[in-house]
From TrEMBL:
Lineage start: Archaea, Methanobacteriati, Methanobacteriota, Stenosarchaea group, Halobacteria
Keywords: Repeat, Transferase
Source species: Natrarchaeobius chitinivorans
PANTHER family registered for this protein in UniProt: THIOSULFATE SULFURTRANSFERASE (PTHR43855:SF1)
Rhodanese domain span: 17-126, 157-261
MF-aspect GO terms: thiosulfate-cyanide sulfurtransferase activity
Protein name, entry field: Sulfurtransferase
Pfam families (alphabetical): Rhodanese
Transferase recorded as keyword: yes
InterPro entries xrefs: Rhodanese-like_dom, Rhodanese-like_dom_sf, Thiosulfate_sulfurtransferase, Thiosulphate_STrfase_CS
Tree of life domain: Archaea
Amino acid sequence: MDESVVVSPDWLAARLEEPGVRIVDVRDPWEYEGIGHVPGAVSVPFDSYRDESDVDRGTLPGAKAFAELLSGVGIAPEDAIVAYDDTHGVFAARFVLTALEYGHDDVRLLDGDYSAWNRTYETTTDEPDLEPTAYEADPLSREESPLVGLVAVEDALERGALFVDTREDHEFEEAHLPGAVRFDWREVVDDETRRLKAEDELEDVLGEYGITPDREIVLYCNTARRISHTYVVLRALGYDDVAFYEGSLTEWLANDGEIETGPA
């Protein structure tokens, strides 16, 4: 696994005291405050970096809002951020995707979640002292960004790209993009350890669905949350040609895009 994308609990534990490493807890505030958190972590709840009021932007919060959010918790553009949740990383992965889109160079997903961390390492209810920064976002250009829109998706369908639907069976059966394969995002997680499966296991699981590094891959779900996790995992495995359909099926259906129904 590429440690510039996904890091282990051991990696993080060895760097808790490093000033340039900032830890972001995206759980609900009551979990952060009442259950405990990784020492030094700041609270950035999932709802604070998700905005469903602007259809053209998907659910991204906007560069200005995101910059203000990070400024408020004392994060600077040069910091290395490690994000986690307690849901196998799916909400934290959305934070990773958002930070990358707004130009943060070093943002990583904790392999596992709060429960996985808590099995080995100490937690705390102490909140760190925060000194606000003057964070400025630097959004990726259209050429740099993995996010694609409706027209690009239509073109990818014409090219025969592999569309990967990360939703549940019943959702897929109701409607999916033409030719899509269904890949439940949770298949990459080991239920016992709550961490990602070993790299060779991941490659085998993905390969069973034809999700291989030589393919052009387009990810989608309903509102681009679940594909965030799959995107981060593929990126950590070295997949280069992975597009992220931010509008996902919500936008596709709103524009009367062609669909198929039935089981995978």
